From TrEMBL:
Species of provenance: Candidatus Nealsonbacteria bacterium CG_4_9_14_3_um_filter_37_13
Protein name (Swiss-Prot/TrEMBL): Condensin complex subunit 1 C-terminal domain-containing protein
UniProt superkingdom: Bacteria
SUPFAM superfamilies linked: ARM repeat
InterPro entries, sorted: ARM-like, ARM-type_fold
Amino acid sequence: MPGLLKKLAGGDLRSEGNAEKVAKEIIKNPKLIKELLEGIKSKEEVIRGRVAMTLEIISRENVKLLEKYLPQLFELSKEIIPQVRWHVADIFGRVEKYSKEELKRIISTLSDYLKDKSMIVRVETLEALSNIAQREKELKREIISKIEALRKDKNINVRKRVERIIERLK
């Protein structure tokens, strides 16, 4: 296991472990991102979860570092672990450079995430779609329609977030 991934190992998915430290290392030395991305294929859920968390932290600081790795992010987006999915949703909401095909795939992935059992995944996905709708004016109506579909969500936090986002997008 590469050294970077060893730093992300151990504990459980509820803790961030060394994700923040590893993200800072990668921001200082972007060549390390390839080593981090090897963790997408790890058999250990904790490592896959921490890879997603580390990528999301990087996206907050410098999303441009991740834009050329969309194929790997799409691979990670297939993960069923909620902790991975909500970080992927955050990243997709921040990415600004993509082809039309990649954007379609991002929207499709996020649309699937709106049906996730995890309330956190649904909430983070709503925010990601909101960010995309603000950038991609021609998709705004379609995205609002997807968001509005959650107005009757079983979770009050999701319903409240839907209302705030709809108000923001008007």
